[in-house]
Amino acid sequence: MSRIKRLQKKFDKLYIDAFLVTNPENIYYLTGFQLTAGDGCLLITQDNAIIITDDRYQLALEEFESDEAVGMITRDYYGTLNKICQGIKITVLGYEDTLSYYLFDVLDETMSADIVPFHYQIEQMRMVKDSSEVELLRQAANLHSAGYQYVLANIHRGMTERHVANLLDFWMKEHGASSTSFPTIVASGKNAAKPHATASEKIIEDGDIVTLDFGYYVNGYTADMTRTFAVGSIDPELRDVYQIVNEARQAVIEAAHVGQRGDQLDLAGRQLIEEAGYGDEFNHGMGHGIGLSVHELPASYGPNAKNVKLRNNEVITVEPGIYIPEIGGVRIEDDILITHGGVEVLTDASSELIIVGD
């Protein structure tokens, strides 16, 4: 059953006649057609899928091959939407509640049909990946692992964090990536104690620990990978912390299975960190879903994720970390595929502490 038909099958239970999709990732997921945010919408009726956009996309739509979706060119997206709904007697139109207030106001003023918000209807469909999506995520993860090896082979003391990020960016795009899914983190020395540091003009020095966290789109899907390595000899405490974080990462992977609760999965790694005395230095969730977006459902799993249960063919991250102010920090992140047959680690780069020289 196609993704569009799966959505259409929900209409009776949702008590709607049609569904409006405005999130570009969800439009792409349902149709395979790529719109930029704000450049149109997708109307799913009981029988049709209509991409409503303007003449900048006319040639792309003419080249677009689909058995289910057709295009309509207009400069008045929502006026045209209303006319279509009136013509086929749509009385209740569902829409994504993630749209902006401005767009809601436009719909509220324009539509003759009743409009009803729904939360994450398509995102819930995206949680479970099909075989083609899994293969694309494998390809993305493989490229990330290779990108990490490229950084290790080229980094040396005296480089700035931003230079390292730029080197990685060039290499990833030269080898198949289209763009980043979030700003690359290169955090060295004391900066590594900041979980969401950004690449700065700080010079990487001998004795620095360096955290590299990056995500790139490859054929529409993104991996998300973090590795931490050393430049020269590092503080002995950081060596111990590295071992703890790596053991926590492995414990979470071993605890992952279909049906596992999010809080129990988190606990598998968090308890090791707490028992080592670093509970207060681990201040974020253990991981999240990935796919067309770098943060997908399950949006996060941590100590309070009792209602999250892993399902077959979900892809999630595992990213424990310890962050010590004025010293540095360690985070190691893998992407894993959950299956009935076990867990597949997609990011296969070594998780052992690597020390690079100059």
Automatic annotation (TrEMBL):
Q: Which residues form the Peptidase M24 domain?
A: 135-339
Name the domain of life this protein comes from. Bacteria
List the molecular function annotations (GO) for this entry.
aminopeptidase activity; metal ion binding; metalloexopeptidase activity
Q: Residue ranges of the Creatinase N-terminal domain?
A: 3-128
Any coiled-coil ranges, and where? none
Note the InterPro entries from the entry: Creatin/AminoP/Spt16_N, Creatinase/aminopeptidase-like, Creatinase_N, Pept_M24, Pept_M24_MAP, Peptidase_M24B, Peptidase_M24B_aminopep-P_CS
The UniProt keywords, alphabetically, are: Aminopeptidase, Hydrolase, Metal-binding, Protease
PROSITE patterns to which the protein is assigned, alphabetical: PROLINE_PEPTIDASE
UniProt name for this protein: Aminopeptidase P family protein
State whether keyword Kinase applies.
no
Q: Which CDD domains match?
A: APP-like
Q: Name one Pfam family in it.
A: Peptidase_M24
Q: Which SUPFAM superfamilies match?
A: Creatinase/aminopeptidase (SSF55920), Creatinase/prolidase N-terminal domain (SSF53092)
